[in-house]
Amino acid sequence: MGKVHIGAAFGYIVxxxxxxxxxxxxxxxxxxxxxxxxxxxxxxxxxxxxSVRSMGLKPSAAYTVAERINWRRASLLIHRTIGPNHASxxxxxxxxxxxxxxxxxxxxxxxxxxxxxxxxxxxxxxxSKHAERIKTRQAWPEAIQLVRAGKRVAESATxxxxxxxxxxxxxxxxxxxxxxxxxxxxxxxxxxxGVGYAGPHAQGNLLDLQEVGFxxxxxxxxxxxxxxxxxxxxxxxxxxxxxxxFFDDAATSGLRSVAHTTxxxxxxxxxxxxxxxxxxxxxxxxxVRLDDQVFTQLNIVREAKHADEKAYGPKVCxxxxxxxxxxxxxxxxxxxxxxxxxxxx
Length: 345
Ligand SMILES: [Zn+2]
Known about the structure:
Blueprint: H1 4-13, H2 20-35, H3 38-47, H4 65-81, H5 94-108, E1 118-120, H6 122-127, H7 130-154, H8 159-169, H9 174-190, E2 193-198, E3 210-212, E4 220-222, E5 230-233, E6 239-243, H10 244-247, E7 252-253, E8 268-269, H11 270-283, H12 292-297, H13 314-323, H14 332-344
Parallel strand pairs: 1-2, 2-6, 7-8
Antiparallel strand pairs: 3-4, 5-6
Helix pairs in contact: 1-4, 2-5, 4-5, 7-9, 7-11, 7-14, 8-13, 8-14, 9-11, 11-14
This protein binds zinc ion (ZN).
Zinc ion (ZN) binds near residues 276, 280 and 332.
């Protein structure tokens, strides 16, 4: 289950998409939640419930009952995560609670968090299910394992390893790929990366969350589900939003133990999906548009509907490595497929 009371508090810490200080304060609270145990987060969410203690609460001149409860949730969430030495107001006085939140925005909202590695953003706490948070947390070390395997194979001179490299990068220079893998590995391990939940349970954004990383330009936007595996936004440090297919067991798997086939499926591991986005964010890769030669290689007559097709998946990327090799070292999914095969080798 999503943590709906924590989610409601986040909705009041960030009031709109231009509230940059609120955004950075929320990120710091989310970092702290990421480091807490699941049971500690569960008990915090239940302390923010207030359903019994707010019985009989009346609207004030300026605030509805829901607003009075949510301002108190917002201040208590801050106190219980990043402000343990600064008690939040012990009442539903919305002016006092709002002032408490404003003070923290001034104090902590000036700079982004500086944590090492990824943190689950407010959208994760508000909407994702426990199993989805587990999948996400596991995918990061899996992505790191995949990049390490890719580096090992790319740096190796054995014939079998050169064949794996050539399968996905054709006759490209090995060093260009190793450079991207190094940037990606460093980013996955060290950069403070916000992870947004764009999975199926964000439908409707009931808690009215605004979070950085959801808009195409990497700025803040309404939290909403996305149809694909994920997106990467912003410059370093940046954001990765994981979308519905990432959480769908029919579309993704754990680490793969066999090499890719080229029979048509995307064959995406969850670690591979994170790796793909991480090469965008840290290695400046793209999803490269296919040239005509790739369609010839695939024995497909190119039509208007293929105009914007990009190099995704084993079938297309294998042909891409033969017919358009010069572009493989800047194509995200070529790295994903190569590292998955390197890990399985
Ligand atoms: Zn991509």
